[in-house]
Amino acid sequence: MPKLKPELSQQLRSIVGDAYYREDREALVAHSYDGTPMLQSLPDGVIYPSSTAEVSAIMKVLHAHRVPLVSRGSGSNLCGGTVPVEGGIVMVMHRMNRILEIDEENLTATVQPGIITADYIAEIEARGLFYPPDPSSMKISTIGGNIAECSGGLRGLKYGTTKDYVIGLEAVLADGSVIRTGGKLMKDVAGYDLTKLLVGSEGTLAIITEATLKLIPPPKTKKTMLAMYRDLYGAARTVSRIIEARIIPATLEFMDNPTIRVVDDYAKLGLPRDMEAILLIEQDGDPESVERDIARIQGICEAERADRVEVAESREEAERLLTARRSAFTALARLRPTTILEDATVPRSRIADMVLRINEIARKYNVTIATFGHAGDGNLHPTATTDARDAEEIHRVEEAFAEIFEASIELGGTITGEHGVGLVKAPYLAWKVGEPGIEVMKGIKAAFDPHNLLNPGKIFAKQTKKRVVIQHG
Amino acid sequence: MAEINIRRKPNIQHANPLAQTLLNKLDYDQLTNCMRCGFCLPACPTFRETGIEPESPRGRIALMKAVADGLMDPDQAFQDQMNHCLGCRACEPACPADVKYGALIEQTRDAIEAHAEHRAPVAGLRKLMFRGVFPKRASLKLLGGSMALYQKSGLRKLARGSGIMKLLPEHLREMERILPDATSKGVVERLGSFYPAKGEPIAKVALFRGCIMDVMFAGTNVNTVKLLSEAGFDVVIPESQACCGALHAHSGELAEARSLAKNNIAAFREAGVSYIVSNAGGCGALLVEYDHLLQEERDERLREDARWFASRVIDVSSLIMERGRVPRFTEGSGEAGAIAITYQDSCHLRNVMKSSDAPRKLLRSVEGAAYTEMKEADRCCGSAGIYNVTQPEMAGQLLKHKMEHASATQARYMLTSNPGCLLQMKLGIQKHAPETHMEALHIVDYLHERLQPAST
Description:
The complex is a heterodimer of chains A (about 475) and B (about 450). With about 475 residues, chain A is α+β, with helices and mostly antiparallel strands. Chain A has 14 helices and 16 strands.
């Protein structure tokens, strides 16, 4: 039974045409989930706009009827950010998928939000330009989704994440009005920085309909190496020492022993299964400086008692090393039916402490958690392999993650480094930003969206989880 | 919020009979294994064409699970969506969790078919083709003979000239024009059931001759045997083998597919060979999965035989490239410069049999030919069994894109490894690139013609 008033459906249909507004069961089911395990909730309608004008008209109608809306791209996020928990309309941005302009004089690109990130990057690179953010989901995620969640990736350490490349936005507000922020400007201090505010706002403040992105020249060359450690602390100290030595690698990735074993079982790469940790390091730039940095990094690895250090001789060999890291998620996903991948993040000097804490917590709750991630920016992915059908085990996994977030904050870190708060992390947000922080954020939300129509139920939890009492001694 | 109930296979009795059958037949573990990460979306041709979530593997699995869980009825839209899947299996290599999507879509179609009320002519035709023709050697020969008669006697000319063809939908008329000459004389009738290796035999192998292959492409079967012999293999062709059952399995006739599988396993087990060679990706993909197809059989011996069979199935290109003495192939030196060639993957060969390097390596070895990789050669051409007949609109769209990429290679020869793809490529050239002189050939026929016998 449709929950929406017939005249509302009719108004939406007249904006986008019959083919692009659906209330049938198939459409509702297929937009009731995203990439987050164990969450599902049906919307009341699904709409596919083709222009900013249509998005604006849709919001005017929904605003008048006080019907909530979730805007989304490919729904590959891992925080429940696009599950329509309060029903309403799901707005799919896939039809707005064009590159509007590549401005080679200003080094900017202006795109619509529905473009697939990998397609956009391919187009940019074909012009000899570089857009560094590279979320692992880029083959399917959209630029709009990347902006909404402020996606990271393997190059975040040296080049920053999505927020560092968004310099202008067009967005539709909850009442249908259209705002533009920033522009093709490298400097702009006219008022509050609404651009940065909208990046990572998870669809709760406005619907992004156009983005201007900064481009940079691509690095001339790239070199890849792998360092293997019997001692976890050695690996972690290497991360801190590299940064201390004022070297910023393009990529500095970490895999712990459980991850190494699983990846080796799956990808048969001949990884050293007896190692406690592996670091995968890449540097890019001018050939001479890359050579110099790689040599210095190699020295640091050896000084920190790496068991073995391999520098790839060719691009193919580098690819083989990268495959190990890229296989981590795939290999872990095949172990058990449900894979819960989190993104606890700590200052990079605390990586080793954090990995040890994660292992302790996993043992305490008797759950399987493997850890890999972007060590260079302190962003770890503790990943639980479990089975959604085992309610008791899932409960232990949830308890374990609550304690992992607690540990992360204790070490000066945060509850999410790149996936966003969404639904899953909402109960923990106050742990990170405190009650006054939550109040300021709620005030901002009210200023943009007084009737709470945009992606309701996200970021702000109805109830905050109590802090876990850590047993010392 | 309607958080999903976490449970084993739901213990519910659906009011809708099809929903109940789906619940019974679907592998609930596989439905649960889909973690909805979305990695399959860019691999899926129907999602790429439409950008609509229900047209993706993730969407289709969500719909199957929703029906099994009682969240939605398997209405006509659901059934149409399941039939809209090409079954190309490109989603499987893309899936981090290794979800067996192919099995899920076959189970779904099997359930739909069990409740289908086909209109009388459709039901009759299905029964005739699936039970009367494909499985039976004699009927196939008769079909081949009658088609040959139709094509050669002037009847075809008459039919085309008379305007009677106009009664058929356009896409069927186009298909009729590209059909190759059929024959009632298959490979055994031409070569006998044993063909010895040239030189010292490396191994004894068996040819899986197929049903359509041996009627419409008997010459390809003959060339396959000769190539295998040239590469050092003794070839036997067990006469009691039947159709592989792929078309049955993909169309929801799983029981018939299983019965064909049992027949074939017995036929090849008796031959005692090291390899069972397929030259059609679509057939080979079901043959390598006979062990899965029969995994619920009670007879342990039968399951063991199915595993024996499945582990020996290999594509002709892989066998020659990886285990044989690769012959020398040369392009004739009639034209100036190297002849441009390209290759269209058979989805089932690539995604299920995992063979994509071997055919390319063989083609790159041809002297005087310049191999050019076509953009998106790994993407389905839209043929997909009988998909181009049942879903002409989507198939046509996919073919159009395919031919844009094909034309861009400026290839003289477009090589394929599956009869369905070959026909689709011929159709594509006729429709979208008639001015190009491009010719579509089965890789075996192309290589056989360019074979240089070893100088002794």
